[in-house]
Every structure is written in structure tokens, then in C-alpha cells.
Amino acid sequence: PANKKLLVLPGDGIGPEVMGEVRRVIDWMAHRRSLSFEIEEALVGGIAIDAVGSPCPDETVAKARAADAVLFGSVGGPKWDSLPFEQRPELGILRLRKDLGLFANLRPALVMDPLVEASSLKANIVRGVDIMVVRETVGGVYFGEPRGVETLPDGRRRGFDTQVYVEDEIARVARVAFDLARKRRNKVTSVEKANVMQSGRLWRAVVGEVHKAEYPDVELENMYADNCAMQLCSRPKQFDVILGDNLFGDVLSDLAAALTGSLGMLPSATLGAVDATTGKRHALYEPIHGSAPDIAGKGIANPCAQMLSFAMLLRWSFGLEEDARLLETAIEKVLAGGLRTADIMQPGMARIGTSVMGEAVVREL
Amino acid sequence: PANKKLLVLPGDGIGPEVMGEVRRVIDWMAHRRSLSFEIEEALVGGIAIDAVGSPCPDETVAKARAADAVLFGSVGGPKWDSLPFEQRPELGILRLRKDLGLFANLRPALVMDPLVEASSLKANIVRGVDIMVVRETVGGVYFGEPRGVETLPDGRRRGFDTQVYVEDEIARVARVAFDLARKRRNKVTSVEKANVMQSGRLWRAVVGEVHKAEYPDVELENMYADNCAMQLCSRPKQFDVILGDNLFGDVLSDLAAALTGSLGMLPSATLGAVDATTGKRHALYEPIHGSAPDIAGKGIANPCAQMLSFAMLLRWSFGLEEDARLLETAIEKVLAGGLRTADIMQPGMARIGTSVMGEAVVREL
Ligand SMILES: CC(C)[C@H](C(=O)O)[C@@H](O)C(=O)O
Ligand SMILES: CC(C)[C@H](C(=O)O)[C@@H](O)C(=O)O
So where does Mg(2+) get bound (chains A, B) (predicted)? Predict the structure, then answer.
């Protein structure tokens, strides 16, 4: 196929460090697997605020639009924490999701066998956990209008947001969840608070309709968000695919990630719709961990989540299943061999830094 | 003091069974501690729908208003699951909260030493966990207007809710959290998504102002809700008091409860404001577990959470600290002695049912 265009957005904190290790993997693939990508880099997050005054410059959005896939690092840090709402580094990722129509965030929470002991949960509870959270990412309370902080006639401040979904926004992300379930263990748990929220009531109804009409072969379970949080903590193995809106998906995917005990290992993908004329589908890949400002620049961050995000990219955006598996297997082998970055360190293992981990993966490849 | 008025609302599912055991405790206290309460009972939830067509009849609200405290069981069950939104059993508790102005829900998540092994988390992670979640319960997205499901001109359905807080609604529940922290380990973690929600931005600002002006001696930490879910799962001991709005408080208090592994042991209190003229404060006490329809009527439910809710009632509404401690200690001793209901059963312990547990507690008293 023609040269694939890859946009790399390292961002802030540990983003640039861990992205550096992915660059090595890309170089290896270019030489040994004769894959060639056209790679561009652009600014996003705090570093973009510092350089050009915006967390997501128009140029970055334009490059992302032109690319076949975006590999994102992480954004934010204490330096920008006191900026007003509309100028925060987080807007970098929010705007990319919105402008590129990236509506489905796929967040696997997978407990790899060598890392069972890294979890705060008992080994028998987490061994074998393999959950995929599908989160809606361009709707709901994150973007709903009206929203703001206003002053009432009596002088009191009033802060408000609108939680809103139109039925097709629910249906399209539900389809992503059902499609994934078919390739996995065939079960979707759809999460809302239909008992107290009107948008949750519509959510449950539409997911049920899509299920009945298009995916009757998949098992569908509806669960309240509070109960889902409980169940994730006490019996995570019951879940296959969890489907949630922007807000519940945010909280529950982080919880699912945390229970694996290895945040530094978890990638994610955010996908748009397939364009009917070009056949192209915008997609952005990013690790689940944040910018981790406390360890940035120390060379101790775990680059695996960023590398695994790149593996997801190879699979989902470039159709390179074999290369994706190659990279994933290399990482698993390095871990099985006993190498560990600080975040997943266990007694008896060898503690290494960011670049030694990157080298080890390339060597394993 | 004059006779205290207590309203008992057993509700649905296991509610009546576990409430029965509290009745024994009340009888014991009447005889041995010469406490006398005027006790009334009323209908709420599904049973009220069946009897009089409303999940929260006006008569129940009137009785609750007249009472010094309300002891609530639990509501809901599959029988009423297909009823329309406005007629569900859950409206029973929602209306009571709203009509009585019960704005602060206090939910302790306490890991008792004899129950450390009941948790899905490792013993070293949960031993000693003692968290109090303070959740706002009459505002936010649960009640905000406008809300509804409408049909757009193009025929698509649109579901929407309003997440809204006025500053004094935030300040008063923040004060409850800070006051509690002073009697505990002096730390409040306030939770929102100030990075994406305008109401969250106001929440953070107002909590900060109350802290600075009235509670500078208490440690205040602001945390995003997604991060809080992660931290609860991986390092729960870092928390003392967690303060959240109606929705985040709902999800995070259930998560905090779940990580103790002993939902059947956890009580809660929901408090209103102190009336400036009468000095009276409305309050409702209920176990955290739901109506558990799957085990209702089998005589195996754990009555401890309902009994501990009554202990909270004695302490908070009737000022009977000594009697509250007496009851709490009796329950702890029964557990330390090896008796367990099915939900907290452990190898080597003696498995008992609802009424044997109730008897054992009364005997211990
Ligand atoms: C950075 C922030 C805006 C973002 C979100 O809330 O969506 C983050 O928590 C995430 O999950 O990607
Ligand atoms: C029953 C339901 C309306 C309620 C809520 O969401 O508040 C419950 O989950 C709770 O936490 O008390």
C-alpha cells in the first residue's frame, strides 16, 4: 500500500521519553519489516501552550486530519494547572477527539500473566481478567450545551453542564462495542444510571434496540454505573466488553485499568467513523497513563503502554496484524524474562529504566 | 428527654427481614437501657406501589417529616423494573431525600479487622481502611432541570439532563465533610471533573473558599473523579473523608464500600440542615446494600448493616453515643467470635442466618 502517514504528538511530561522508545521500534520495523511510514510531529498540550499559546493549534488539527493515524503521548502538568478552563493542556486531547469525530475510545484492561502480582487485588480475582471498555468520547456532559458558571440575580454563582445524547450517537458507539464482543467473549455490559437520568433511560433503550435488531447473538447486560464500579472491584472476571458514555466511561475505564495494577502497560485507541467516500477512518492511539510529571525526565517511565498503543495502531489503522502481534509478543517476552520498570517492579525481578526497556524490546524483536 | 419519634420504613426485598432484627435490638434497649421510642411504620418502594400506587405516598412523607429520625430498609426488585421512570420504587428514596432536604449522605467504608479477608483486595492494601464518603444528595444531575427525552424535528430522540449546583449547595455539604474530618484524620479529598465540567470548576472553587475561610486547619486535596476511582482501588489507605457531588458520590461511595468486601456490614446516614427555629435536623439511616431480591425471604441476609444504621441513628439523631457504641461493639464481638452470614463467610467460621445473627447480637448486648 501507499505510504502511510503517521502523526506523532509526544506532548508533555513523560510523553516525549516514552515516544522516543516507539521511534526505535519504528526504525526497526522500517529496516527489518520494510514498513515505511511518513512520520510528522506536532505540538499538543502544555508544550503547545508555551510555544504558540494554544493547547491544540490549528496546525496540529490539520496535520491530524491529513494523517492516517495519530500516535499521542500525554498532556498536562503542574505548570499549566492554574490556567483558566479554556486554555488547559487537556483541551488538546478534547479538541482532537471532537474535531476528528473520534467517538469510540477502546480501552483494554488486560492482566498479563507475569504481572498478576502487580495488582492490588488478590491473584485469584484478577488472573485472566481481559476487559475492553468502550467509551463514547465526543458527546455527553463533556460537550453538552448550555454550560457555564453564571451569577444569579441574588449574587450567588451557579455552575451547570448539560448531559445530552441523541440516539444515533448512542447507536454508533454501541455498534463498536457489539462488533468487538463478537471477536471476544460475546458479551456487552452497557452502563448508565437509567434509574435517575433521562439520558441514561434513552441510552438503555437505544442500546437495547441496536442489540435486538443487529446483534441478537451477543449477550447484552444493562448495569447501573454504581453497581458496575462495585462489580469491577469485587468480580472483574464477569466482564468482557463494557460500554459507557463519556463520563461513566471515563471513570470506569480508569477503574478497570487500575485493577490490573499495571497502568504503565495499558494502551488505548480512539476511533472515528469510516468515511463513506474515502473509506478512511480517523484514529488516535494513546497510553492510558497520564503525563506523570513527578517522574518526567528521570528516564524511569515505562514505555510499554506507548509501544502497545503503537501496536494497536498497526492493527487497527494499518491492518498490520502480524506486525502488531510481533511487537506485543516481544513485550510479553521481555516481561516474562524478568525485566521491570519501577512502576511494575516485583521482588526478584531486574529493575530497569525507560531506554533499557526500549532496547530490550527491540532486541527481542 | 421527651419520647423520640422513629419512623421505620422496611421497604422491599430483604428490607423487612433485616429490619426485624433491629426491632429486637430496640426491644432490648427499651427494657435494659430504658430507652423508649415512639415507633411508627410506613410504606415505601415497590410495596407502596402495590398497596397505594405510589413509591412514596404523601402519608409516608408526612410521617417522615414528623419523625425525629427515619430508619430505612431498601427498595426495588424485578417486579417493578419495567415500570415507567416516574413510578419506580427508587423514587421512594429520592423523594424522601429531596422533600426532607437530606443533602449530606455519609457513607463509611470501614474494614473491620475480622473481615479483612472478605475483601477482593490484598490484606495489606485494605487492613485499616477507614474512609468516610460524604455525598451531596439533593442536587446535581439527579434533579437538575431541564431534563427529559424529546423528539427532534427530524424524528431522532434526544435525552438530556442538567448537572447544576449553586454555590451554597456546595458550601453546606463541604462543611459537613470538613467537620467530620476534624473528628477523624483531618483530611478531605474533594472529587470532581473540574477539567471538563463547569459545575466541577465551581465545585472546586467553592470547596476551596470554604476551606480557606473556615477550615484552614484541615488538609484539603482536590482530585479528579477518574483518578479517585483508580486510587481507591490501588491505595485506599490514603483517604480519610472523600467529598463528592450526587453522581460522583454515588459511584465512588459504592466503590469504597465494595473494596471492604463486606457490603452487608455497611450503614449510611443522610442528614438535612439544622432547623434554625426548632433545632431539629431531619435524618434518614439506611444500609448500603440494596433490596437483594435474589436472597429475599430466605432468612440468610446479613442484618448487621441495618443494625449499624440504627447505631448511627442513635448517635447522630438521638445523641446516644454510649448506646450506639454498645451496639457496634456487640456486633464486632459476634464477628470476632466466628459467626458469619453467607455474604461474609470465610473458611473456619460458623455460617448462620439472619435471625441467628440478630439473636447473637442481642445476647452479646
Ligand atoms: C485529560 C482528560 C480531559 C481526559 C478525560 O477526562 O477524558 C482523561 O481523563 C482521559 O480519560 O482521557
Ligand atoms: C436507588 C438509587 C436511586 C440510589 C441512587 O442512585 O442514589 C442508590 O444507588 C443509592 O446510592 O442510594
Answer: 226, 250, 254
